[in-house]
Amino acid sequence: MMEHHPAAARLAEAATAAAQHQGSGNLLRVVLVVMVVGCVLTGWFLLRGYKRNDD
Q1: Whole-angstrom Cα distance, residue 8 to residue 35?
Q2: What UniProt keywords apply to this chain's record, in alphabetical order (predicted)?
Q3: Could you give the CA distance from residue 36 to residue 30 in angstroms, rounded to a whole number?
Q4: Which one of 4, 9, 12, 23 has the lowest number of neighbouring Cβ atoms within 10 Å?
Q5: How far apart are the C-alpha atoms of 52 and 30, rounded to whole Å?
Q6: What is the Cα–Cα distance from 15 to 24, expressed in whole angstroms?
Q7: Separation between Cα atoms, residue 33 and residue 50, nearest integer Å
Q8: What are the E-state strand segments in 4-53?
Q9: Computed from CA positions of residues 20, 24, 12, 10, in that sequence, does the dihedral angle turn out positive or negative?
């Protein structure tokens, strides 16, 4: 039976499991990919308000 955990606790558990299983190199790659995707999504979110409607 699954217990309810906050999202942060689940992410920490997953990161710990990944670090133990695969080593820190793959965990670092995952962190970097998540950071890049987060930056792209943040940029899209901020810049979408500046688009021009030339209708």
Answers
A1: 16
A2: Membrane, Transmembrane, Transmembrane helix
A3: 10
A4: 4
A5: 35
A6: 10
A7: 26
A8: none
A9: negative
Is the pTM value of this prediction over 0.90?
no
Provide the CB-side half-sphere exposure for 20 (13 A, CA). Answer: 6
Question: pLDDT tens for residues 44-55?
Answer: 999 987 776 655
- Amino acid identity of 42? T
Sequence-distant (≥ 6) Cβ neighbours of residue 13 within 8 angstroms: 5
Whole-angstrom CA distances from 37 to 4, 7, 13, 46 are 27, 19, 21, 14
Asked if residue 11 lies in contact with residue 18, where contact means CB atoms within 8 angstroms, the answer is no
